[in-house]
Each structure stands twice: as structure tokens, then as C-alpha cells.
Amino acid sequence: MFGEKIALNEETYTLAFKNALTEIKNVCPEINRSFILMSNGALIAGDEQAVDPSVERAVRSLQDLAEKTVSVGGLDGLLIDAENGKIYVSRINSMYLITALSKQTDLTYLRTVSGVILPTILKVLDSISLEVVSPTPLRSVPRFPSTPFESEPPTPLMEEKAVEETAEEIEAPVSSEARDVLASETESESPKRSTDLPSQQLIVDKFGGLMVRSDTVQIDLGILQRWGSSLNLKEIREVDVETFSGKTVRCKAKVISDQKLEGRGLIRIPEKTCETLEVKRGELVKVKPVVPESE
Amino acid sequence: MPIKKKVAQIEAPEHVDWAPKIEVKEQLTDLRAVLEKIQAKEGVIGYILRAATSASVDIKDPSKIIDYAVLSASTLESAEGLLEAFGLGKFCSIVVEGRDLKVLLLTIGEYRVSVFMEKNVDHDPIRKELL
Fold first, then answer.
1. B residues 95..114 contacting A (CB < 8 A)
2. In terms of CB atoms within 10 Å, which of A6, A108, A136, B29 comes out highest?
3. The CATH number fitting domain B2-130, selected from 3.30.530.20, 3.40.50.620, 3.30.2310.20, 3.30.450.30
4. Which domain holds residue A96?
5. Are residues A18 and A129 in the same domain?
6. Domain limit, last residue, from A115, A133, A151
7. Cα distance from A30 to chain B (closest Cα, Å)?
């Protein structure tokens, strides 16, 4: 079920961006070829062009380059002025627009057009997609049904049942380990703390580099602040990242360093940790803050 | 008389095998001088000058040298791949923009130059100065 929803979304994104590329070409006729490299590695070609293997290889090398630009704060743009034309690559949120242009292209105009059209489409699609795919709203809400707990303190048995109900609601398997963790939290912590424990589904964005620590993930400041305030913590230092196949990793949490990726419901996970979790760019994971025992 | 003969020999040498070497050396010296001037500009972080068998590096923060060298090499590799795929011929110049910095890459003769600078620096005058 979960996989089907993702596939449907990709199709929608592909169609929307294909049309967007065609429209951009209509207003900038100097564009010879244009592609969009999505954050999950998918390559979309505009104007019914075929993505031949050489282009695909070249674009993949661009993906490698993007991972090696940590020293300059990530790849924002690339302009190659060549003998017979230009190649212009620009980052739009977490994806890249790649265009092959004629020598006379007015780059300022292209920047303006693509910088308006694509982010707008992406924003609209993201808002639709998050409503459809993620049953967990972006604003943090108590993970468990609140009505029964307001009147009287819950018994461990009731909470276990609540966990099962929530797991059914999100239509994804929760590992037995995760249930054990939740059950043990129910037994050891105060009722308020366990009932308010927030969690959120976030989209995976992979990042790497020489200086990247594999035990640290990056999350929106807003999400961390919301968790902090709902749990009465000064800051969220650690989070549990759980995949829908049941793999869980505990990582240190930091704020997303790239301002352009903020507010998009992303969790940036180092490459090594992605391999451990067996997740790819664009997949959803469930993220929960870790409450220190001393707090 | 013997003195005159010597002078004549120097002015009109018969063997000119060494001439291209001098030219290359002069080009390198000129390039270094231009790069030193550019390096002194506000916002310029440093440069890497690469020849077939040698390289000179002048980066303000030495801890970044490896990162920048890797970035420079990866950019050239990636650019060549893209140009080949799109059939646009050889590159004249490349500008890579990061969030904090940008890099200008050029090929001048047998040398490949990468100039690292802050993002707000206008790279166009630097490119013109080098070419």
C-alpha cells in the first residue's frame, strides 16, 4: 500500500515537471535540451526527449559532483561555457535543473523563469503529496489518541492497544522491537511523557562528504523546536529513525544546514546510515525524538 | 674582432630547440603573477594551478586544500562528461557555485586554473584577467 502511494506520487511529479520543462522551453527557445534530476535520483526529460545512456551517465556524474561540493556548501549552480553552447545547472530546492543552451542565451531570464515556475510546482505537489502520503500531519500532534487519557491515567495494557491502533492507522508494519521499546516506555515513564511522545514521517534526503559524521542526521529547526516544546526539553539531541521495513537507528539530531532544504519535511541522513537503514532518497521514514532518561 | 663575432652569435642563434621551453616558462611565470594579483583581491580565497606533471596551490586555509583539489578534479570530470553527452565541444570556462563559495575553472594552454572565491565576488573580471 505504502509503495503504491509512492509510485503514484512519482508519476504525478514526473508529469508535472515534464510539462514545466516544456513550458520553460517555450518561453526560453534557446534551451536545446533540459532535464530535472530529482532528489531520489530520478531523471525527467522535458519535451518528449529520450534520456540516452550517455546523458544519464553524465547526469549521474553530476550527482557525484554534488556530493563532493560539501567544501563549498553544496552544489547550488554550475555553468559550463563551451565551444558550441552552454550547460547550466541550478538547484531548485532538493532537485537540479540541467539545461543545454545556445551560446546567446540570456541566463538571467532563464534563472528568473525557472526559479519561479519550478519551486511553485514543487511546493504545490509537495503539499498535495504530504496530505495524501503522510497520515502524520506536519504540525506535531500527540501520537496516541488523546481522549481516553484525558479523563484517567492509562494502564500499560491500554497503551499497548493504542500503539497497535496507531500502527494500523498508518498502514505500515511497526517492528516488534519498536513495539517493545514503546511498551517499555509505557511501563517506565510518566503517562504524560509517553502519551505526548511525538513522531513524524519525513522524506529522506541523502548527503555525504569527507567531513560528514554518519551518526548525525539533519532535521528542520521547526520540527525540533516543536518536539522540544511539547516534551519540555531545551533541545532534542537524539532521534530514532525507523524505516517501514522495521530497521531503526538512533542518531544525533542537528538542524538542516542548508537553508534551501528547510521546511520541506526532509530528514537528511548520511550515506552510510542510509545504507544501514536500506533507505533511498525520497523514501519516507518515521522519526521520533529521544527523551533523555535524566530529563 | 673576436668580440663582434660573439655578439653576432648571440643575436642570431642557429639552434632554437630551447625556444618553446622558454615560452612555456614565461607563460607559467606570467600566469603565476596574474594569479598572485587575483589572490590579493578581496573575497578571493585561493587558487590551484595544475600542469601535466606539477601543480601550485595557494589557498588561505591550508586545511581545505584537499577538499578543493578534489572538487576541482571532480568538476572537470563531470563537466567533460556533460559536454560530451550534449556534444558541445571543449569547455572555455566553468563556474561552480556552492552556498558559501564559488570556483572558476579555466584551461589556459596546458594549464588548468581553479580560482576559489566568495560567492559575492564577480568572477567575470577575474576570468578576463586570466584569459
1. 95-103
2. A136
3. 3.30.450.30
4. 2-133
5. yes
6. A133
7. 14
Number of domains present in the structure of chain A: 3
Whether the per-residue pLDDT at B112 is higher than 80: the answer is: yes
- What distance in Å separates residue A49's CA from the closest CA in chain B? 13
- B83 with A62: Cβ contact below 8 A: no
Residues of A in contact with B85 (CB under 8 A): 52, 54-55, 57-59
pLDDT interval class at A86 (50, 70, 90): very high
Residues 18-77 of B with CB under 8 A from A: 64, 66-68, 70-71, 74-75, 77
DSSP string across A113-142: HHHHHHHHHHHHHHHHHHHHH-SS-SS---
pTM summary value: 0.55
Grid coordinates representing B73? 578534479
Nearest beta carbon to residue A77 from set B83, B90, B97 = B97
- What CATH code is carried by the domain that includes residue A51? 3.30.450.30
Domain CATH number, residue A289: 2.40.40.20
Q: Per-domain residue ranges for chain B?
A: 2-130
The answer to whether residue A69 neighbours chain B at the CB level (below 8 Å) is yes
Whether residue B122 lies within 8 A of chain A, CB to CB, comes out as no
Distance from CA of B10 to the nearest CA of A (A): 42
If asked whether residues A279 and A294 sit together in one domain, one would say: yes
Q: Is B128 on the interface with A (CB under 8 A)?
A: no
* Portion of chain A with pLDDT greater than 70, in percent: 70
pLDDT one-digit tens code per residue, A154-212: 444 444 444 444 444 444 444 444 444 444 444 444 444 444 567 788 888 888 776 67
Q: Find the mean pLDDT for residues A94-106.
A: 86
User: What's the CA gap between A18 and A187, in Å, rounded?
Assistant: 52
**Alpha-carbon radius of gyration of chain B:** 19
Angle, in degrees to the nearest 10, between helices A156-169 and A176-188 = 140
Exposed, middle or buried, B78 (CB in 10 Å: 0-12/13-18/19+)?
A: buried
Same domain flag for A92 and A113: yes
Same domain, residue pair A224 and A288:
yes
Say whether the ipTM exceeds 0.85: no
Could you tell me if A152 and A239 are in contact, meaning their C-beta atoms sit under 8 angstroms apart?
no
Grid coordinates 533511498 are at which residue?
A: A280
